[in-house]
Specification:
By secondary structure, this protein is an alpha+beta fold. The chain folds into two domains: 69 residues, no CATH class; 137 residues, Protein Transport Mog1p, Chain A. The longest helix has 29 residues.
């Protein structure tokens, strides 16, 4: 049976104790030493004095009891710690021109010729060229031109990123190379990419891409949209890719003879 938190006790009267004067000794704690100390505060020499002493003793003990209760509760409070976690760095998508960090502009811009039927769209910090093609059933195709310093993460990682966007698995370098077509445009090595979602996909999509690797930069041309509409633009896409002219030191950014300058030229 659990002992009460405090209880009245009438021990054998010792000279000078509250019990010797007719007072009850109050046991508040199980510790004999602590109870002895507290009860010593309430000794009284007479019956009348005992009443007053007992009242003061009770008030003193209750005050101490409340204080001890607060201290015990404080001992069990959980410590609250505050940690500052740095935000993850913003990731920049190399191939589609999205993200918050724009690459530095190319020192030697490229020029190109817009195919007929392609609608020029507003540029952005990431996009050096932007076009749209509308289909007859409300569908549309998006075309972007972007450029990044160096190898922009490498051909393998960027082509695999395109594959993942149409829900195709990433491939190792050897298998990936088997599905790529290689050309030379204006003396610059060029890789052509054609990848699409699996048959029966809920949202079919296809990507035609071109990757140009100049001495100091990598250029990306990406056409994305519904497979049938993309197929109808494949010839125009190839004409667009082959129209690129890359300036270098000592060269100007003027268009080659016979080509019409696009307002998206950079």
């Amino acid at each position: 049976m659990r002992k009460p938190f405090f209880a009245a006790k009438s021990p054998d009267a010792d000279p000078g104790s509250p019990a010797a004067a007719g007072c009850n000794e109050v046991k508040i704690f199980d510790s004999p030493r602590l109870n002895t100390t507290l009860n010593a505060l309430g000794t009284c020499p007479s019956q009348d004095g005992c009443v007053l002493a007992a009242s003061r003793l009770w008030t003193t003990r209750m005050t101490l009891l409340v204080a001890v209760a607060f201290m015990l509760a404080a001992c069990h409070e959980e410590k609250v710690s505050v940690y500052r976690i740095p935000k993850e760095d913003n990731q920049v998508s190399m191939e589609n021109g999205s993200g918050n960090l724009a690459p530095p502009p190319p020192a030697n811009p490229a020029t190109w010729t817009k195919p007929d039927g392609w609608e020029e769209k507003p540029l952005s910090e990431m996009r050096l060229g932007s076009f749209g093609i509308k289909g007859t059933n409300g569908e549309s195709v998006d075309v972007s031109v972007t450029s990044f310093p160096g190898d922009a993460g490498g051909l393998e990682s960027n082509v695999n990123r395109w594959r993942e966007q149409v829900h195709q698995p990433a491939l190792e370098a050897e298998r990936l190379a088997d599905g790529l077509q290689r050309e030379t445009v204006d003396g610059v090595p060029t890789v052509l990419v054609d990848v699409q979602t699996a048959p029966g996909a809920e949202k079919p999509s296809r990507i035609l891409g071109a990757v140009f690797r100049t001495d100091d930069r990598t250029w990306f041309v990406k056409l994305t949209g519904p497979p049938d509409l993309v197929e109808s633009q494949k010839e125009s896409f190839m004409q667009f890719v082959k129209s690129f002219h890359f300036s270098s030191k000592g060269e100007t950014t003027e268009n080659p003879p016979g080509k019409v300058k696009s307002t998206n030229d950079r």
